[in-house]
Amino acid sequence: MDDPTASLAPYARVKRHLKAELADGRYPPGALMPSEAELVQQFGVSRMTVNRALRELAAEGMVERLQGVGTFAAQLHKVSTTLTIRDLHEEIEARGHHHEARVLLLRAERAPAPLAARLGLKAGAEVFHSLILHLENSQPLQLEDRYVNPAAAPDYLAQDFSRVTPTHYLLDVAPLWEAQFAIEAAPASAEEAQHLAIAEGEACLVMVRRTVGQKAPITIARLVHPDSRYQIDWAIKP
Amino acid sequence: MDDPTASLAPYARVKRHLKAELADGRYPPGALMPSEAELVQQFGVSRMTVNRALRELAAEGMVERLQGVGTFAAQLHKVSTTLTIRDLHEEIEARGHHHEARVLLLRAERAPAPLAARLGLKAGAEVFHSLILHLENSQPLQLEDRYVNPAAAPDYLAQDFSRVTPTHYLLDVAPLWEAQFAIEAAPASAEEAQHLAIAEGEACLVMVRRTVGQKAPITIARLVHPDSRYQIDWAIKP
DNA sequence: GAGTGGTCTAGACCACACG
DNA sequence: GTGTGGTCTAGACCACTCA
Question: Which site among A55, A211, B140, B238 is 20 to 30 Å from A127 CA-CA?
Answer without folding.
Answer: B238
